[in-house]
Amino acid sequence: MADLARKGDATSRDWPLDIYKALKAAGVSQVCYVPDAGHSQLIELSHADRDIKTTVLTTEEEGVALAAGAWLGGDRAALLMQSSGVGNCINMLSLLASCRLPFLTFVTMRGEWAEFNPWQVPMGKATREALELMGVTVFRLEQPEDAEEVTSAAAALAFESDQQIAVLISQRMIGRKKWTETK
User: Fold this and answer.
1) Is the pLDDT of residue 115 over 90?
2) Structural domains for the chain
3) Which stretch of DSSP H or E encloses residue 176?
4) What is the CA radius of gyration of the chain?
5) Spatial contact of 164 and 135, defined as CB atoms under 8 Å apart
6) Which residue, of 48, 63, 157, 163, is most buried by count of CB atoms within 10 Å of its CB?
7) 7 φ, ψ to 5°?
8) What is the mean pLDDT of residues 104-126?
């Protein structure tokens, strides 16, 4: 049996906590996600917060609809996904642009730095361009110390200007992943 092991390539700064704090400050009250090791700490922080409603999704495009519905119901939502999930959302992203609905997503990148899984590389290469083709403004988070500032700026642009925003979190920040055998 194999399971995913993470080697600590990222710095020790607690950037998921910084993202969480900035989301709270921006009034985000719903977080939806497809389970992902790169987002695990942010997911745990969201679950632990009684003021944040969390929703586990079966596929990422459900998160686009959930974010739209949250906004129409008076809430602010953030979608957490992996870069491979961006391809699943392409058609649903047209809803956001057509209806001028704000959207905020955090995308952990795969298929770049030290990737072990060749299946992750094609979508990893195409993530930014796919989002931009659908009218989504893309921010890139490369340094842990920038997490709170980038999140705050992204949330302000999304929720105060009715924009669609994606924050791509570098694979180097989430750490090297590799398959290992367990006994």
Assistant:
1) no
2) 2-181 (3.40.50.970)
3) strand 176-181
4) 16
5) yes
6) 63
7) -105, 135
8) 83
Cβ(105)–Cβ(157) below 8 Å: no
Residue 54 bridge partners (DSSP): 31
| C-alpha–C-alpha distance, residues 114 and 118, integer Å | 11
Q: Helix, strand, or coil here: 102? A: coil
Give, to the nearest 10 degrees, the angle between helix 15-25 and helix 147-161: 30
Rounded CA-CA distance 63/104 in Å is: 10
Whole-number Å distance between alpha carbons of 33 and 181:
27
Distance CA 169, CA 128 (A): 11
- How do residues 95-109 score in pLDDT, each as one tens digit? 998 999 999 999 998
- Which pLDDT belongs to residue 118? 80
Read off the tokens for 171.
């694979």
